[in-house]
Design the sequence.
């Protein structure tokens, strides 16, 4: 890789991107990082061989800027970057709820912006990253974003109008599964299993079910029906889930996450 890429905001997702890009073939010398704390910057230099720089230096030097700061910090970061970002730089935003127009309005006219919503499985190279083009982003810009985020998982292009829904489904999605595993583990303990054995049973069941969903081509209803025998244990459990409104609760939860993403876009912290 010959282009220089700068990652602004090197938390867990930013660091996952760095490590994934290096495994995918980027040279550490071509990767720049910014961090609020000097000790964090030096930690990344030691761990990956990347170059810590200031936000202004990154904007002047890098061909691509990846902004992985928190949504509430985006405005401040853009104010700092704006005087130094030429209009030919590609800017990739990974902040939930922040629109490409929000960024375009604060940078030089014509700056290409790509919006990406990824998730924490980037830490294990199993991310789902959803990519949308801003007003000035072209095919090459989108392909470059896919190359970067493809280093830590799967990518999918969607219109930006669907980004808030994708944030609710996949951006926040891992938390829902962790929550479900937590609840099922508690149930296993209630049923008399030690915590470690309940955890192992549930995690492997989740991995197996996810693999079947991905690889079988079957609709989830069909896969569920294959496990659900007449008058058996599974149908009794499903009946209780329906009686307690679990399906409706999930739909309401995702709507709430989508609405919060929209609030973040409007500047409500």
Sequence:
């Amino acid at each position: 890789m010959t282009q220089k890429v700068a990652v602004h905001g090197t938390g867990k997702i930013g660091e996952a991107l760095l490590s994934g890009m290096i495994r995918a073939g980027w040279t550490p010398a071509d990767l720049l990082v910014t961090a609020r704390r000097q000790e964090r910057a030096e930690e990344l230099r030691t761990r990956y061989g990347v170059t810590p720089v200031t936000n202004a230096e990154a904007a002047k030097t890098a061909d691509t800027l990846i902004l992985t700061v928190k949504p509430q910090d985006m405005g401040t970061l853009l104010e700092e970057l704006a005087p130094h970002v030429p209009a030919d730089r590609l800017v990739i935003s990974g902040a939930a709820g922040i629109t490409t127009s929000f960024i375009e309005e604060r940078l030089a006219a014509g700056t290409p912006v790509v919006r990406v919503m990824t998730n924490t499985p980037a830490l294990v190279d199993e991310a789902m990253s959803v990519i949308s083009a801003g007003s000035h982003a072209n095919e090459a810009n989108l392909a470059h974003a896919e190359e970067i985020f493809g280093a830590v998982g799967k990518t999918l292009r969607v219109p930006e109008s669907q980004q808030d829904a994708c944030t609710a489904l996949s951006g926040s999605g891992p938390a829902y599964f962790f929550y479900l595993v937590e609840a099922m583990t508690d149930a296993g303990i209630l049923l008399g299993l030690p915590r470690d054995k309940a955890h192992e049973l549930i995690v492997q069941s989740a991995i197996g079910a996810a693999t079947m969903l991905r690889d079988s081509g079957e609709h989830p209803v069909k896969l569920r029906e294959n496990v659900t025998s007449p008058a058996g244990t599974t149908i009794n459990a499903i009946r209780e889930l329906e009686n307690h409104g679990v399906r409706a609760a999930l739909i309401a939860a995702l709507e709430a996450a989508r609405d919060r993403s929209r609030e973040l876009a409007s500047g409500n912290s």
The beta strands are 5-8, 31-34, 51-52, 64-67, 90-93, 113-117, 127-133, 153-157.
